[in-house]
Write a structure and sequence with these properties.
Number of strands: 11
Catalytic activity: (6R)-5,10-methenyltetrahydrofolate + H2O = (6R)-10-formyltetrahydrofolate + H(+); (6R)-5,10-methylene-5,6,7,8-tetrahydrofolate + NADP(+) = (6R)-5,10-methenyltetrahydrofolate + NADPH
Oligomer: single chain
Radius of gyration: 19 Å
Structural class: alpha/beta
CATH superfamily of the largest domain: NAD(P)-binding Rossmann-like Domain
CATH class of the largest domain: Alpha Beta
Distance between the termini: 43 Å
Number of helices: 10
Largest sheet: 6 strands, parallel
Domain Tetrahydrofolate dehydrogenase/cyclohydrolase NAD(P)-binding: 142-290
Organism: Ceratopteris richardii
Shape: globular
CATH architecture of the largest domain: 3-Layer(aba) Sandwich
GO molecular function: methenyltetrahydrofolate cyclohydrolase activity; methylenetetrahydrofolate dehydrogenase (NADP+) activity
Number of domains: 2
CATH topology of the largest domain: Rossmann fold
Order of helices and strands: EHEHEHEHHHEHEHEEEEHEH
Bound molecules: nicotinamide-adenine-dinucleotide
Function: Catalyzes the oxidation of 5,10-methylenetetrahydrofolate to 5,10-methenyltetrahydrofolate and then the hydrolysis of 5,10-methenyltetrahydrofolate to 10-formyltetrahydrofolate.
Length: 295
């Protein structure tokens, strides 16, 4: 059966490295601070949980987190004003607008308002554009895709020259993951909801990255024996025996995947913790750039 890729452990290692780097940075800059600003609009339960864990992670490594909470009926202009305030604040190195935004807001306009130098989520059109262009290096790569690559690299899975399938083509996971894998010299196919016979494609490749949002979509027969499987999905399914009445599962049927793959990520403790670790890494990179310590 497959080796389990322990995302929690790898993320912990990375957070430790970041904490040490931040201590060094502070001593190099006579105690200058690092700041991450989080903008939360409305009170979505999941968003509040995500924001809480991001703030906790910041505190642990020595990043100051500022939070701005706006009511759900705020205007887009009010959100833009908050973003602009953080753009102008030199103690803020990263700005994160937590998704989803209320329906009456234009997500693209809000993301485009974030200063490219502080776009630690990597969703600014200029960052995504640079990610898509050969020979350009975007200052920030979206956290979940970056976390997937980092998991592969730190588990000694070679990406260069390999065939990879990314299932899903969202702006925040699938599409940037595919672009990032290409930059790492993989041959990438994107499988999405209009792909006929996806298994014909998926069971031919060395690495499968599932970012769909459909519980247990990927079964054992989707996977080539010995392939590596990264499961990004976080899907609640009913479970009367669980405390909350549900539990979280991935896009991959873990039991079947583990029988076929040579390595696989679990849910939880797979990609999830890596996303936060990469947010910290992006914030640190941003601060280093601001203090002239990174090209
Ligand atoms: P999304 O809904 O924006 O995109 C899903 C994509 O899957 C779409 O591109 C769609 O074309 C494709 N798709 C839908 N049904 C399909 C099918 N039957 N076959 C093939 N492709 C299909 O979702 P998202 O934001 O990319 O998130 C995907 C999953 O990853 C969700 O479960 C989400 O909760 C999870 N997620 C996890 C993290 C993390 O940190 N671990 C971060 C972001 C998202």
């Amino acid at each position: 059966t497959a080796r389990i890729i322990d995302g929690k452990l790898i993320a912990e290692e990375i957070r430790q490295e970041i904490a040490e780097e931040i201590m060094r940075l502070k001593s190099q800059t006579n105690g200058k601070v690092l700041g991450l600003a989080v903008v939360l609009v409305g009170s979505y339960k999941d968003s509040e949980t995500y924001v809480r864990s991001k703030k906790k992670a910041c505190k642990e490594v020595g990043i100051i987190s500022l939070e701005e909470n706006l009511p759900v009926d705020s205007s887009e202009e009010e959100v833009l004003n908050i973003v602009r305030k953080f753009n102008d604040d030199p103690s803020v190195h990263g700005i994160l607008v937590q998704l989803p935004l209320p329906k009456h807001m234009n997500e693209e306009r809000v993301f485009a308002a974030i200063s490219v130098e502080k776009d630690v989520d990597g969703f600014h059109p200029l960052n995504i554009g640079k990610l898509a262009m050969q020979g350009r290096t975007p200052p920030f790569v979206p956290c979940t895709p970056r976390g997937c690559i980092e998991l592969l690299l730190r588990s000694n899975v070679e990406i260069k020259g390999k065939r990879v399938v990314v299932i899903g083509r969202s702006n925040i996971v699938g599409t940037p993951a595919a672009m990032l894998l290409q930059r790492n010299q993989a041959t990438v196919t994107i499988v999405h909801s209009y792909t006929p016979n996806p298994t014909e494609i998926t069971c031919e490749v060395d690495i499968v990255i599932a970012a769909v949002g459909v519980a247990h979509l990927v079964r054992g027969d989707w996977i080539k024996p010995g392939a590596v499987v990264i499961d990004v999905g976080i899907n609640p399914i009913e479970d009367p025996s669980a405390k909350k009445g549900y539990r979280l599962v991935g896009d991959v049927c873990f039991k079947e995947g583990a029988m076929k793959a040579s390595a696989i990520t679990p849910i939880p403790a797979g990609v999830g913790p890596m996303t936060i670790a990469m947010l910290l890494r992006n914030t640190l990179d941003s601060a280093k750039r601001a203090y002239g310590l990174l090209d």
